[in-house]
Recover the amino acids of this structure.
């Protein structure tokens, strides 16, 4: 393992969503080709059924024929993916234990970090499997409020307030074993946050970063890993 790989975890968002459509075999393969350490993918229960599918939301699922969780795990568990880790992101509560069972059945639990915006989901998973790695994803959003002029200012004020309390809240969640890692949007990252989480023994993964200058800044800051739609950026980081 190179010095860079041991210092910064390279995580592909939905595989490599800027190279191939996310949450697909093609996207996972593209991420592997780019040399990632971890692949993030989304798990959702289908809207009018019981299958667990690889999709970010129901609009995403409606636009294609998504892989089932079992199909995705079979692909990611193949010999080609070696020891690449998995960030299994649960989009909604209600099927946590089914995901846990699927990872266990596929023999991939040791390679997985299960993340969620819902602390109740993490608590359920911890009770069922104390040794499972858990990531708390913040903030809890369904869409980016900074894209709308109407919500931009309130979102900025809320972000500043959340930045103040997040280091303490995240460190406490890690020390009490409610989670092992913080999966945090780049707008909320501060040196103080990184210090608090790392001092508590936790990891910091930052999403979703597609700009090389920001990637370089996060690398210097000492975060554990960065999640990107274009994992080819990591090769430029090494230059």
């Amino acid at each position: 393992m190179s010095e860079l790989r041991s210092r910064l975890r390279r995580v592909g968002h939905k595989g490599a969503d800027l190279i191939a459509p996310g949450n697909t075999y093609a996207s996972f393969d593209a991420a592997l080709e780019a040399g990632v350490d971890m692949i993030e993918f989304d798990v959702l229960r289908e809207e009018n059924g019981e299958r667990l599918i690889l999709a970010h939301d129901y609009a995403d699922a409606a636009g294609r024929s998504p892989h089932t969780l079992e199909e995705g795990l079979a692909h990611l568990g193949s010999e080609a993916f070696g020891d690449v880790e998995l960030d299994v992101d649960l989009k909604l509560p209600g099927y946590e234990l089914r995901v846990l069972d699927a990872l266990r059945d596929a023999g991939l639990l040791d390679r997985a970090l299960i993340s969620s915006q819902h602390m109740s989901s993490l608590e359920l998973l911890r009770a069922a499997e104390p040794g499972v790695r858990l990531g708390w994803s913040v903030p809890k959003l369904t869409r980016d409020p900074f894209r709308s002029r109407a919500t931009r200012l309130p979102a900025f004020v809320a972000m500043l307030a959340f930045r103040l309390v997040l280091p303490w809240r995240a460190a406490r969640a890690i020390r009490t074993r409610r989670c092992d890692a913080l999966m945090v949007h780049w707008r909320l990252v501060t040196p103080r946050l990184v210090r608090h989480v790392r001092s508590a023994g936790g990891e910091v993964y930052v999403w979703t970063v597609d700009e090389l200058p920001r990637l370089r800044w996060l690398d210097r800051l000492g975060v554990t890993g960065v999640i990107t739609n274009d994992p080819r950026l990591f090769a430029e980081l090494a230059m």
Summary: DSSP finds ten helices and nine strands in the chain.
